[in-house]
Design brief:
The protein is α+β, with helices and mostly antiparallel strands. It has one domain: YjbQ-like (Jelly Rolls, Sandwich). It contains 3 helices and 8 strands; from the N terminus they run E-E-H-E-E-H-H-E-E-E-E. The strands form 2 sheets. The protein has a 5-stranded antiparallel beta sheet, covered by helices on one side. The chain is elongated, with a radius of gyration of 16 Å. The relative contact order is 0.37. Bound molecules: zinc ion. The site of zinc ion has 4 residues, from loops.
Length: 135
């Protein structure tokens, strides 16, 4: 298993980790398979979306904030209930296919670490699963 460390700078932000996931695949030496990403945090997530135009990630964050505002009538006493909810909505796992040692992503796609309760030092765990056969 490979660990990617992500140091976030803001309370809420999307951090593009595509090149780091690609590096993890390269480090594995496996050419065909799945990089299975797992985020072991309750107030963060992982997603694949457009990383070409940064306003897309900004719009997603703004819409999530509109749906689940930081301040609200939450019962969780720690004060970060909204971050937990956003983590549930985005999810903490993300499989990424790779072929010939390269991530299989669409032209505009990238892999994001999604911070909802930063700034913090975070981890993304990467398990490289070799393809059992060529398909
Ligand atoms: Zn909490």
């Amino acid at each position: 298993m490979i660990t990617i460390e992500v140091v976030t700078q803001k309370r809420q932000e999307f951090v593009d980790i595509t090149s780091r996931v690609q590096a993890a695949v390269g480090e594995s030496g496996v050419s065909e398979g799945i990089a299975y990403l797992y985020c072991p945090h309750t107030t963060a997530g992982i997603c694949i979306n457009e990383n070409y135009d940064p306003t897309v990630a900004e719009d997603v964050l703004n819409k999530l904030e509109e749906l689940v505002p930081v301040s609200g009538a939450y019962r969780h006493a720690e004060g970060n209930a909204a971050a937990h909810i956003k983590s549930c909505l985005i999810g903490v796992t993300q499989p990424v296919l790779f072929s010939s040692g390269k991530l299989v992503l669409g032209t505009w796609q990238g892999v994001f670490f999604c911070e909802f309760d930063g700034p913090r030092r975070r981890r993304v765990l990467v398990r490289i699963i070799p393809a059992a056969q060529t398909a």
